[in-house]
Amino acid sequence: MELNTIERDDIGAAAEDLVVPPAATRKVFVKTYGCQMNVYDSQRMTDALATDGYVATDAVGEADLVLLNTCHIREKAAEKVYSELGRIRELKAERAKAGREMLVGVAGCVAQAEGAEIIRRSPVVDLVIGPQTYHRLPAVLAKARSGEKIVETDYAVEDKFEHLPRPKRAELIRRGVTAFLTVQEGCDKFCTFCVVPYTRGSEVSRPVAQIVAEAERLADAGVREVTLLGQNVNAWHGRGEDCEEWGLGRLLFRLAEIPGLARLRYTTSHPRDMDNELIAAHRDLPTLMPYLHLPVQSGSDRILKAMNRRHMAKDYLTLIDRIRAARNDIALSGDFIVGFPGETEADFEATMQLVEDVNYASAFSFKYSPRPGTPGAEMNDQVPEAVKDERLQRLQALLLKQQQHFGASLVGRTIDTLIEKPGRQAGQKVGRSPWLQPVIVDEKAGEIGDIIQVRITKTGYNSLFAELA
Ligand code: SAH
Ligand code: SF4
Ligand code: F3S
Questions:
Q1: Ligand 2 mean position to 187 CA, how many Å?
Q2: What distances in angstroms separate CA 126 from CA 65, 118, 119, 280, one per listed residue?
Q3: 289 phi and psi, to 5 degrees?
Q4: pTM assigned to the model
Q5: Is the shortest distance between the CB of 196 and ligand 2 below 6 Å?
């Protein structure tokens, strides 16, 4: 993997007698947990490390630096990190025997939420770095290399994105024809179940010029489809090139002008921030894919209130009607939590009813996981695990039925597909439908980056099979 061409002096002093490889031959292994924003962040950290002489590797045993980019959203996600650190401890010991250094870093939302506690619990960790300080990674590593344990979890006052180095064009090309682009980070909504406002901080929108420049670089490297990211992406706002205040809808219109960018998406949205301009973008902008992830969490007004979602079930249904009126082939996706404190059978039935009413093309559903420091964790009436299990099963069965129904409705239809990568089986390529399903086609159907018309012949578990139309 060719990441690095910049050579710099080794800025860190060697810790004891371990061999610190000279800059430009160091290897970093990055493992990413959690949401798409972590995927984007891992790439940006890799870009920052490239300027410090690190080349990415897929072999953890060969790594001079292991970085875990972590997720704190549910207990299971957070605990995964500690089991991984257990394995890494053994690898680090083996490498030390061979006289080789291995620095271990924890980044992401667990880093932000737990800070120094991570090093107390897992002394194998050398550095803990929160999502708002990734641009300081090279400086932090220099200190860590000299044997200091570092915890860097301040919310940076400077603009992180301004200070993060740009990826090289060759690296962008290597990453493929679809890309993520963070436009907004953090959350001010404080849903009572959620850690994100604490781990990502308050809402920040990146400026228009920065976003446009990054999207142009992506397009220049052959990217055809860009997904704009934000914890509350539709709360994005900024001063436009015309000095007017823009919302996400206006930004999408601007990005659609960039030559080469054929497809735009955005995620994740909050129902309260779907404004008229954004809905109009779905109506008027063919580049904007007809797929919308719009989490509602519950169909019960009582539970929505306890969750601090600040809307009612009927507001959500009315909103869906407006969106569908603007774009009738839009596929909807959502997130659901079952077993929030106080959820009764009737509340859960209301969620099932809402799912019936909306008819989702896909969705994610989770058992409520009490998170330290959130109001939900302190609430009475925590729902027993067995009840959560049973409700999750019922909900998932319904959502799966709807997803399969949606897939089946496409059989026989001709649709656009963006050819993305070689298939797992020889002779195949994998594309992406407008509704985010993988589409399996014959490898001769088109080149990677082409958008071709295919006819859907049958459905798989989560994918579509197609032939050239
Ligand atoms: N910003 C997005 C959600 C980000 S978290 C939004 O507002 O919808 C992604 C999903 O994880 C949430 O939509 C929710 O369904 C789920 N989630 C968040 N906290 C959770 C918790 N404590 N237990 C279970 N699921 C949770
Ligand atoms: Fe979490 Fe709610 Fe913010 Fe989404 S809107 S990130 S669920 S607090
Ligand atoms: Fe997880 Fe943080 Fe994303 S908690 S879901 S990695 S914002």
A1: 6
A2: 10, 10, 7, 49
A3: -65, 145
A4: 0.94
A5: yes
